[in-house]
Amino acid sequence: MEAGEQRAEQARVDQVEREIKRQVATAEQAVDEAHQETRAVEKNYSENASINRYEVDDIAESRSELEQQRRLVSQAAENENIINHQLRTLQNLQGSPYFGRIDILDPGEDEPERLYIGTASLMNSDRTDFLIYDWRAPISGVYYNGTLGKVQYETPAGTQSTELVKKRQFTIKDGRITNMFDTNETVGDELLQAALGAQNDQYMHNIVATIQQEQNNIIRNTSSDLLLVQGVAGSGKTSAILQRITYLLYHSRADLNADQIVLFSPNNLFSHYISEVLPSLGERNMRQVTLAGFLRRRFEGLQVETLFDRYEERQSEATAAHAAADFLESATVMTAVRQYVHQLPADEVQFANLTFNSQVFFSADHIRELYQGLPASLSVADRLVKLKNQLIRELQHRVREEAKKDWVAKALDELDVQQLHRLYGQRSVDDFPDEEAQFAYLARKLAKRRLRVVADAIYNNYFIDFYNQYERFLRQVALPQTISNRDWIGVITDYQNEIEYHRIKLMHTAPLLYLRDLITGSGQNRAFQYVFIDEMQDYPLATLVYLRHAFPKAKFTVLGDSEQALFKPLQLPQAMLQELRTVLDAKHPQLIVLNRSYRSTTEITDFAKALLPDGDQIISFTRHGAKPRLLVRYDDAGFKQALLENAVQQRADHESVAVLTKNREQAQTIYRFLHQHQLDGLHLLTARDSDLPTGILVLPVYLAKGLEFDAVIAADVSAANLTNVDAVGMVYTMATRAMHQLTLLSKGAVTPAINSAASQQLVIEHEFADKK
Ligand SMILES: Nc1ncnc2c1ncn2[C@@H]1O[C@H](COP(=O)(O)OP(=O)(O)OP(=O)(O)O)[C@@H](O)[C@H]1O
Fold first, then answer.
1. Would you place residue 277 in the very low, low, confident or very high pLDDT band (cuts 50, 70, 90)?
2. In this model, does residue 391 exceed pLDDT 50?
3. Beta-sheet pairing, 100-105 with 113-118
4. How far from chain centre, in Å, is Cα 315?
5. Could you state, in order of their start, the residue ranges of all structural domains in the chain?
6. What is the DSSP annotation of 572-606?
7. Regarding beta strands 738-747 and 709-715, do their DSSP bridges make them parallel or antiparallel, or are they unpaired?
8. What are the two backbone dihedrals, phi and then psi, of residue 404, each rounded to the nearest 5 degrees?
């Protein structure tokens, strides 16, 4: 490119940088002012709120004044938030204001228009012109999708046409253009190379400057209610959905906010790993939850087995147990639940006593009688609503009776002045004709307050024993032939025992929750508009059916890589789409397949793809590094020595080195061993951890899902250690976590999962004990 051209572009960058600086200064001042305003109204509010309300003559008036002040506080805080957000967005632009330029010639125009594209929009000082267009603006779609010539792009007003006459890409660092070129492709590999080589911390980066065309299709898809993304490891699935979230938030600002989006992420570490992406784009984070967290909230009081616990257990379980789990995790079992609830006879409902002060308040028999008195033509859920209303009416009656009892008079006597005032609520002494009326009022209020626990219990459906109900379901469900009656009895007994100890296995969670929700007609959240599920290959179908039920209004974006399935056999994307389409009841499903892998060097990807029977479809990105190494040691001491040497060596070269193991126990053993040698920055990561430090991290492979590290040491890939059918998925997942360097360690003969084609991609080193 001509030097003059670069000078002209640099001059523009300088001008834009000056404008950003000016706007940052204005925004900083506005932030200060807004902050002071918030402090002032807060101070006013807290001073007034702390006045003892009972000393104020007119309580009602003081309340409404306080309410008004509270509103002022929240308005001021909201205003401060908005200005802060604007400041952050401007600061993010500083130093690297844009990365692309498109010149477009609209129909009927003589001169092309020049548009610059960055992470956010920026207007000039008199707000007449865009200096930068947000990458999510409709016209920016042309940058990612279009090659030169006639192009179309989507806008809220419909499809528009234009002509793309130039596409230019920039790398701008600290306000200097370090690289710029014109291109006809989506985003040049050169830029991508630079971006991938520059990952230098433990956080995921936003990929906005280098989004690839097929990723762009994921990001800008607004028409599908089920978007299934099947992508090989490191193909940018997670990156693409994070960009998609910011895109959706940008486009539906008026009717979508971050609280209406939920991302199911594979583990707590992952949340930390991606936490920087959205803020770097000026967006608030969506809600994030792990499956374990979601279930924990729905099973309060029970300890729910996690995916990881299940995985650990499955390694040691007999195959008979697998058949039962497979059934309980299938969509079939969910259909059976639906049918069971639909036909649930009144005498089959497992009612429970409602108690108050350890005494039966409403007996199960009484509740059943009420239920049986309701029209059988109603659905179970509708009948329950009516039953609850009846119970509430009875409770009100009981409150009146209870108010006459001695315990109430006694409790009233014991109240201090403040408590008494609170009991009066809106009323005052003068509102009552005589003392008797006053006492009756207070007694009723007190009784009502004490009996609120019963009201809550009614409201929360505590009068049905769902654990028993589910057991009844299990006892009558039609079993597939793969499960013998004897094994099934074992499953039920195990379930009962677990409940006894306040625990529940993961395989029971979806059918049990579904059963509970269908009976009570609850558990659905209609506010959520988008549900994202990452690493979907680890989600049982039954769980997906349940999530569809729990978020009935949401569009689903489901991402996965069946090759990384640590828990189940491989499935083809098309078959998966069909299956999901049914279970998620989707009207406009779409499948997008990503075959290009960006994370790892060509050498690592070539090894990983050779592991898979259909690995040919994986396209490695051309970024070269050292060949992966396989070190085979035939005794424990040699193995440990190799591990230690490698960990130290890799750490000298890299920020993050992960030692990945098959399970928790092996991670602990390795950690203890390395710990004895006092390695710098050594960490053992567990399912509870949510911080992802740099250094040498020892963790089981399932906790590394979705993450990436500069260097990976896979320990141990011996045949003795990796015997299961899922050994291939395991080695594949371990290998594809590495960005730059991969070392495999084997104690003894190597697992057959590393076949001869894969072995050819390795530098192999054997060392026998007697050689040393
Ligand atoms: N268009 C892109 N531009 C720059 N970097 C990219 C791009 N796409 C992906 N990457 C990088 O490739 C790496 C892998 O991306 P990501 O984690 O999104 O892949 P994934 O498909 O979710 O992987 P996995 O399934 O293995 O967890 C990340 O470092 C990401 O920043």
1. confident
2. yes
3. antiparallel
4. 26
5. 1-93, 95-199, 284-343+466-594, 354-460, 602-767
6. -HHHHHHHHHHHTT-SSEEEEEE-EE-SS-HHHHH
7. parallel
8. -85, -10
Provide the strand spans (E) within 250-321: 261-265, 287-290, 303-304
Pocket lining: 205 vs ligand 1, CB cutoff 6 Å: yes
Among the ranges given (41-45, 90-94, 179-183, 262-266), the one the predictor scored with the smallest mean pLDDT: 41-45
Distance (Å) of CA 361 to CA 214, 394, 419, 456, 724: 62, 11, 27, 13, 54
More confident residue, 480 or 314: 480
Given this model, what pLDDT does residue 53 score?
A: 44
Backbone angles phi, psi at 92, to 5 degrees: -65, -30
Half-sphere exposure of 391 (CA within 13 A, CB side): 30
Lowest-pLDDT range of 123-127, 266-270, 543-547, 624-628: 266-270
Domain 602-767: what homologous superfamily?
Answer: P-loop containing nucleotide triphosphate hydrolases (3.40.50.300)
Q: What is the pTM of this model?
A: 0.84
Q: Which residues contact 552 (CB under 8 A, 6 or more apart)?
A: 524, 526
Give the β-pairing of 158-173 and 100-105.
Answer: antiparallel
The two tokens of residue 556 are: 């689903």
Tokens of 346: 């009144």
Secondary structure E strands in 452-537: 503-504, 530-533
- H or E element, residue 684: strand 682-684
CA distance 151 to 233: 32
Question: From atom 9 of ligand 1, which residue's Cα is the shortest distance away?
Answer: 236
d(CA 452, CA 447): 9
- 594-611 tens-digit pLDDT: 999 999 999 999 999 999
- Encoding tokens for residue 283? 């967006």
| CA-closest residue to ligand 1 atom 28 | 599
The annotated binding site for ATP is made up of: 231-238
Q: In what order do the strands lie in the sheet with 287-290?
A: 287-290, 261-265, 530-533, 555-560, 226-231, 589-594
CA-wise closest residue to 547 among 576, 573, 586, 520: 586
- Whether 236 lines ligand 1, by a CB cut-off of 6 Å, is yes
Average pLDDT, the chain: 86
Beta strand 158-173 pairing with 176-182 = antiparallel
Q: Which atom of ligand 1 is nearest to the CA of 209?
A: 3
Q: Is the CB of 268 under 6 A from ligand 1?
A: no
